[in-house]
Design brief:
Helix content: 10-25%
Radius of gyration: 21 Å
Structural class: alpha/beta
Shape: globular
Number of strands: 33
Number of helices: 8
Length: 412
C-alpha cells in the first residue's frame, strides 16, 4: 500500500507555521506528524501539498493509495482502521475526511492546483465512496495554538511509542530526580546537576542532547537530538525543544520546532516558535491579558483577529524570524516568516512575513535577497547548505505574503 499525507484547508489556518512546510512537518510532542505516521505505519509516506512546496516534498503515486489527512495525528486505534480501508472507502469525521483509499487512476482528482492554495482535498466528491463514520478519539491540528494546547498529550503518546521495549541510558547521580521511571535518556546525551520532576509527565532527552548544570525541568518535556538546555534554565511542561536548538531562560508550554536559538534569559510561554529563529537576550512574551479575557489571534484565512478559545496564549513566530535584545511581545502575537524585529516597547500583535523594524520606528520590507543571504549564512554556521529548493520556497512565500504587508503601515 502507498501512503500519502495530504494538506486540507487547515493548512492556511495554520499559517505562518505552514508557509515553508507541509502540515505533516509540524512538530508536536517529540516528533513531527509525518514521523509519527511513518513510525506507526512502518512505511515511508509522501506528501500532497501546495504546488510551490511540491518540488521539495514530491507526491509519489502507487497503484493503490491511502490518503491520510496530515492535520490528524495517529494513534493505534486510528491506524488500525485506516490501514484496513478497502478501495473506495473513506473514513470521515464530522466535516472533514480523515483518510480514503483510491487507485492511481482516481488520484489525479486530488492533484495540487496551479494556484498557491490547496482546497481540492476538501471538495473531494464522495459520491460512490463508502463512507465510514469515525468515532475514534484523535487529535486534529487546525490552528497554530493547537500545537501547544495538545502538546502534553502528544509528548506522552510519542514517549510511549519511542521508548517501548527500550532501556534508557543511565541517569547521573549528580541530578535530583523525581519519578525517574518516566525519564528516558537517549545514547550520547549529557545530563548533569539538573533537577528533573517527571511526576506530572514524561521527560525525554534526545540523542547527543545536553542539559547543563542548574537546569530545572518539570515534565512533560522533550529535548530533541543535539539540542542544548543551558545553565539555570527553567522549563514548565508541556514543552518541546526541537533538534539542534539552544535554549535558556524560562519556557512554559512552548513548542520550538528546531534549529532555533533562545540562548538567554527571558520568558516564552504558551507559544510556538519555528525553525531558524533567533530570540535576543531578555526577549519576553505575555501569555495572559490583564483583563483575563479570551485571547484573539491573527488568522490568515479570515484576515482578521479571531477568538482562540484560550485564556493563556502567547507568541506564534514563523521560521527564519529574529528579534533583538529586550524584545517584548504582547498576548496573542503572530509573526510571519523572515521578520526581523527590534526596538523598545511592545510590538504589534500581527507582524507580516518579511517585515523589518519595530512598532515605534515603523516597518519596511525585508529585502528578499538580503533575507536569503542571511539564511544561507545561518545554515553555514550549522554546517548545512541552503538549497535552491529552499530559496525558491522563500521567494514564493515573499510573493504570497505581499498582501499582508500592505495591511500594516510601512515607513518609506
Amino acid at each position: 500500500m502507498n501512503y500519502i499525507l495530504f494538506d486540507d484547508s487547515s493548512r492556511m489556518d495554520l499559517y505562518p507555521m505552514t508557509l515553508i512546510r507541509p502540515v505533516s512537518d509540524i512538530r508536536i510532542g517529540i516528533m513531527t506528524i509525518r514521523e509519527k505516521w511513518e513510525k506507526y505505519l512502518k512505511d515511508p509516506v509522501s506528501i500532497l501539498t501546495d504546488k510551490y512546496l511540491s518540488a521539495k516534498y514530491p507526491l509519489i503515486k502507487g497503484k493503490s493509495n491511502i490518503l491520510i489527512n496530515a492535520s490528524v495525528c495517529p494513534n493505534p486505534n486510528l491506524v488500525k482502521v485506516i490501514t484496513r480501508l478497502k478501495a473506495g472507502q473513506a473514513l470521515v469525521c464530522e466535516d472533514y475526511i480523515i483518510a480514503y483509499n483510491i487507485d492511481e487512476n482516481d488520484l489525479e482528482l486530488s492533484d495540487t492546483s496551479d494556484d498557491a492554495r490547496i482546497e481540492d482535498t476538501d471538495k473531494i466528491d464522495l459520491e460512490g465512496l463508502n463512507e465510514i463514520a469515525c468515532d475514534i478519539p484523535h487529535m486534529k491540528i487546525n490552528y497554530p495554538w493547537d500545537i501547544f494546547s495538545f502538546n502534553g498529550q502528544a509528548i506522552k503518546e510519542d514517549f510511549a511509542l519511542l521508548t517501548k521495549g527500550r532501556k534508557s541510558a543511565g541517569i547521573s547521580a549528580t541530578n535530583k530526580v523525581i519519578a525517574g521511571e518516566n525519564i528516558f535518556i537517549e545514547p550520547g546525551a549529557k545530563v548533569e546537576c539538573a533537577i528533573i520532576n517527571a511526576s506530572e509527565g514524561p521527560v525525554y532527552i534526545g540523542k547527543d542532547a545536553e542539559v547543563m548544570e542548574g537546569a530545572i525541568i518539570r515534565g512533560p518535556f522533550a529535548l530533541c537530538e543535539n539540542s542544548v538546555l543551558k545553565m539555570g534554565a527553567k522549563i514548565y511542561g508541556p514543552t518541546t525543544i526541537g533538534p539542534y536548538s539552544k535554549v535558556g531562560g524560562e519556557l512554559n508550554n512552548t513548542v520550538i520546532f528546531g534549529y532555533t536559538n533562545k540562548a538567554h534569559d527571558g520568558f516564552i510561554g504558551n507559544s510556538v516558535i519555528g525553525e531558524w529563529c533567533n530570540l535576543g537576550a531578555d526577549t519576553n512574551n505575555s501569555n495572559l491579558k490583564n483583563t483575563y479575557d479570551e485571547v484573539k489571534m491573527w488568522n490568515y484565512t479570515q484576515e482578521k483577529f479571531i477568538p482562540s478559545g484560550l485564556q493563556f496564549c502567547g507568541l506564534i513566530m514563523g521560521d527564519h524570524s529574529k528579534c533583538g535584545i529586550n524584545s517584548m511581545f504582547n498576548t496573542g502575537t503572530v509573526i510571519g516568516v523572515n521578520a526581523n524585529i527590534f526596538g523598545h516597547g511592545f510590538q504589534r500583535c500581527f507582524i507580516p512575513s518579511f517585515s523589518w523594524g519595530s512598532s515605534v520606528s515603523g516597518y519596511t520590507t525585508y529585502d528578499i535577497a538580503k533575507a536569503i543571504e542571511v539564511a544561507r549564512n545561518v545554515y553555514h554556521r550549522r554546517g548545512l547548505e541552503l538549497s535552491q529548493l529552499d530559496i525558491d520556497i522563500l521567494q514564493n512565500v515573499f510573493n504570497l505574503t505581499f498582501p499582508f504587508r500592505k495591511k500594516v503601515k510601512f515607513v518609506k
